[in-house]
Amino acid sequence: DADVTQTPRNRITKTGKRIMLECSQTKGHDRMYWYRQDPGLGLRLIYYSFDVKDINKGEISDGYSVSRQAQAKFSLSLESAIPNQTALYFCATSDHDRGYSNQPQHFGDGTRLSIL
Amino acid sequence: GQNIDQPTEMTATEGAIVQINCTYQTSGFNGLFWYQQHAGEAPTFLSYNVLDGLEEKGRFSSFLSRSKGYSYLLLKELQMKDSASYLCAVYHFSGGYNKLIFGAGTRLAVHP
Predict the structure, then answer these.
(1) Which of A38, A40, A100, B62 could be a cystine partner for B47, CB 3.0 to 4.6 Å?
(2) Which residues contact A9 (CB under 8 A, 6 or more apart)?
(3) Residues of chain A contacting residue B30, judged by C-beta atoms under 8 Å apart
(4) Burial bucket for residue B29 (CB in 10 Å: 0-12, 13-18, 19+)
(5) Do B102 and A90 touch (CB under 8 A)?
(6) What is the per-residue pLDDT across A86-97, written as a single tens digit (0 to 9) for each?
């Protein structure tokens, strides 16, 4: 089984609909992240959470919200989807950093979202 | 602001060596990661540099010069399965947290 699981893997929906993307992890990591990836732009951070009671905006949080329901679960919502939110969305987790050793992020397989 | 530059595309021959460069401008630099991403798949961690110098890991090596804002990923004995995008990502300290900023990636095509 994958350590970081995203559902759904693919979703096609219409403008104005509310959408929730789910992420769950079995790695026991405290830190979880949501990114979107667009061709030519690389991965951009939407929201991140360093523990269950911690939620922080990333560089492109407008139009998105998140919920950290438990250490293992972090969901991303699009309250009213618009076509320019069509992208590949990734959830990631990491352990907390230790001194000078920054921990790598581990990614789920992604959710391909298309908004018509 | 933060900026990361890497070439958009590269091609190489099976069995050869290729070097993928990454330059960055960022405040509060706190380490650099390289990730590999096959088309339509998740990025996977390759290497991490926080101090100047070369880190070697099998066929892959990564180099960092903090004074020059420069890193490279070196892939030796190229195999067809190395055809993928390679993402340079910089950790920078901002607002009390380390944040990871990704470059747009370099798409590498390995030919027979």
Answers:
(1) B62
(2) A109, A110, A111, A112
(3) 102
(4) middle
(5) no
(6) 999 999 999 876
